[in-house]
């Protein structure tokens, strides 16, 4: 009887130790941020644009959309303690004007941000852009990391403004692989 009890106790503690080791080995999310400041932004028709040809920003449910593009060395990315300034990145944002609320209302947006961690990184943004004057708009939404070197997942909140230039801030977390 004692040997059965001892065997069960050893098996229990072995299983507990295995679970504890696996739990400790799981990677912990790291804080991440992205900043784009006063980047020249071009807005144009959606049809035939880089927004339309991209898989995620290529959404225009109403058929009445415009495309906002930013591309250049405007991104400052930070993951954990590591920061990279003035790195190349691109943003392709589709604004669905056909689904706007009111004359100067808010419209859904779908965007792709590429290169914000390293060249291979890509994140998807869904959110809302609201016009507050004839030339300026605020936007906000959520970002999900699709691909990135050394990271298995990521998410964050995006806020920004556009008035001929684009300023954007993303704060969130990335989970190492």
Could you explain the architecture of this structure?
By secondary structure, the chain is of the alpha+beta class. The protein has one domain. 16% of the residues lie in helices and 56% in strands. The protein has two helices and nine strands, in the order αββαβββββββ. The protein has helices at 2-25, 50-53; strands spanning 30-40, 42-45, 65-79, 82-96, 106-114, 122-131, 137-147, 151-162, 165-176. The chain has an eight-stranded antiparallel barrel with strand order 1-3-4-5-6-7-8-9. The longest helix has 24 residues, at 2-25. The radius of gyration is 22 Å and the shape is globular. 32% of the residues are buried. Residues 3-23 have low confidence and may be disordered.
Strand residues, percent: over 45%
User: How many domains?
Assistant: 1
Q: How do the strands of the widest beta sheet line up side by side?
A: 1-3-4-5-6-7-8-9
Order of helices and strands: HEEHEEEEEEE
Distance between the termini: 46 Å
The outline comes out as: globular
Major sheet characteristics: 8 strands, antiparallel, barrel
Task: Give the overall average pLDDT.
Answer: 81
> Helical percent range?
10-25%
Total strand count, please?
9
Query: How big is the Rg?
Result: 22 Å
Q: Which class best fits the helix and strand makeup? A: alpha+beta
Helix count, per DSSP?
2
**Low-confidence parts:** 3-23
